[in-house]
Amino acid sequence: MTVRPGVHPRMVLATLASCGVLVAVVQTIVVPLLPELPALTHSHPTDVSWLVTVTLLTGAVFTPLLGRAGDMYGKRRVLLIALSSMVLGSLLCAISSLLPVLILGRAFQGAAVAVVPLGISILRDELPPARVIPSIAIMSSTLGVGAALGIPAATLVVEYANWHTMFWICMGLGLLDIALVLLIVPESKVRSSGRFDVPGALGLSAFLVCLLLAVSKGSTWGWASASTLGLFGGAALIAVFWVWYELRVGAPLVDLRVSARPAVLLTNLAALLIGFAFYANSLSTAQLVQEPTSTGYGLGASIVVSGLCLLPGGVAMVLFSPVSARLSVARGPRFTLAVAGSLMAVGYVVRLFTSENLAAVVAGATVVSAGTAVAYSALPALIMHAVPVTETAAANGLNTLMRTIGQAVCSAIVVTVLTTMVATKSGHTAPTLGAYLTVFVIAGLAALAAVGLTLLIPARRTAAAREPDLAEAASTP
Question: What is the pLDDT of residues 353-403, one digit of tens each?
Fold first, then answer.
């Protein structure tokens, strides 16, 4: 495949990667601010947690929907819509301290997660074969890079500036990204036919809202409460009818027959477990180093220091994404994903024995982040080898959704463990060291389970051998 006139591969990749990093940063910037937000918004801590929950919900709902819309109506067009949603959400959060307005703004920000699978699909359509695998590796890893960099950046803003400043910055960067996309990124000529599956979209949205709301709020409401059980039951019932409908409609939102292929199904399940293992690292590290020394293991670090502990992991993700691409070209993405899961598991083993030393905590967290970068870079390559070119955005959107569900489940489990295994010393109640170690064990086992699923994925030709196939598919009108 030759590059279309006026398309500059390096500039296209740089533009799309900057969009992905910004969107991922936006998802995490409120995390360091959560302890302060009840006072800043005059709200209850339980209500403030919706600033994280609503972003998770809208991200999960809109990622597959916008991915499918991109395949049908133009990936660049839908990408601009997603970026505009992020800009609007940032503006709402920047101008108000009212919790309902902030929640609405965060909902708009969450919908922008679809930028990453849309960007991956644009790269597949527009770049020459030799650049496809390395470029999608970088694009896919932006979710992890942005998340790893978002918390340190937000802690610095919260410490030294007005908290609204971080939203103004995100809005400005979002407008800049929109301008760059308009100037540099071409509209893909690859489209899928048919009508948009509105009933399927509504069904999937209802299922995800019920499922993720129950998972996210179960520890607060009680896992045996009527609300939690009702939502789980509703999700199960909706899922049955949604699958029945999607198997019978002519142009489904999600092609379940393709999704049921072992190569796609096992890759998506591995993505869920990788998302779980990655998020446990982010959730536990900052809180662990901030625990007071009176706990017997805490380091009593400040919020800025705790955020900076994640910065080396972000740098490692930037450095290891190209390494992952080269490994995928040489040995195939299946091998790369197995290596990544193993590396994450090793990182958690390190964390099991070094939780009382700051340098060792940072080292273990960085190893996990490096493994995450390698995994996130390999996942879209596995998906693209297994689905038609006209379903690239939708399939990658579904894979991103599985990572999001993994993060949601991880958040629920981590909160449950850290609030159940507690001890009181010197009048301060905090999780025990055993609670953190339990989190590390669970996350390490999730990473190993991802390795096991990866090894079950049917062996394919190496990525290098597949590149001509990608080129031929991407050039199909």
Answer: 887 788 888 999 999 989 998 998 888 888 878 877 767 767 877 888 888
DSSP string computed for 377-412 = HHHHHHHHTTS-GGGHHHHHHHHHHHHHHHHHHHHH
CA angle 456–459–461, rounded 5-degree value: 160
Helix pair angle (358-384, 433-456), 10° resolution: 30
What does the pLDDT look like over 107-137, one tens digit per residue? 999 989 889 889 988 888 888 877 887 888 7
Reading phi first (left if > 0) and then psi (alpha if -120 to 50, else beta), residue 60 is in alpha
Element (H, E) at 55: helix 50-73
Contact 362, 354 (CB under 8 A): no
Output the pTM of the full model: 0.81
Long-range CB pairs of 160-169 (<8 Å, 24+ gap) are 163/33, 163/36, 163/40, 164/93, 164/94, 164/95, 164/97, 166/29, 167/29, 167/90, 167/91, 167/93, 167/94, 167/105, 168/90, 168/94
In whole angstroms, give the CA distance from residue 189 to residue 208. Answer: 31
Residue with tokens 């995994």: 375
- Which structure tokens are listed for 293? 């020394």
Gyration radius of the chain's alpha carbons: 21
3-state secondary structure of 278: helix
How many distinct helices (H) and strands (E) make up the chain? 20, 2
